[in-house]
Amino acid sequence: IMVSIQVEKLKQQIKDHEGYRLDVYVDTLGFDTGGYGHKMLPGEVPPTTKEGWDKIFDEDFDKAWKLTQKFCEENELSIPLDAECILCEMIYQMGFAGVSKFKMMIKALKEKDFTEAAKQMLDSRWAKQTPSRANQLSQQMESI
User: Fold this and answer.
1) pLDDT tens-digit readout, 48-61
2) For 41, 83, 109, 119, which has the most beta carbons within 10 A of its beta carbon?
3) What is the largest CA-CA distance in the chain?
4) CA distances from residue 136 to 54, 81, 102, 109, 122 in whole angstroms, order as listed
5) Is 61 helix (H, G, I), strand (E, B) or coil?
6) In what order do the strands lie in the sheet with 21-26?
């Protein structure tokens, strides 16, 4: 039950950070985006309702959660659920490959040094592109 409560809180936090747009717009990196930060795939037809975007969000979230488990396995991370949730939001935003570039953060997480992991999160292009989100997630990591 604790896991599902935490996951629901994580979903809400991601939605809050992403913001919501019914219409498709071009994001800061030049991608067509809609809903809760969903990058449109070639040929994908955007939904015309919030319900449609909610369904896509749930699919995107489930994908990010599965990738988070894979990320932890591949990097041999045995970390608390709080830290997994932070990684999941990063993967939701940047993708598996993007988060894989955080070599020093991964090393710190392996050593369960959450303060160092938090510091490494901020030493990134991601932190410059989305500073308030990066700072908030870094503070969450530091408090583990």
Assistant:
1) 999 999 999 999 99
2) 109
3) 46
4) 24, 17, 17, 18, 10
5) helix
6) 21-26, 32-35, 38-39
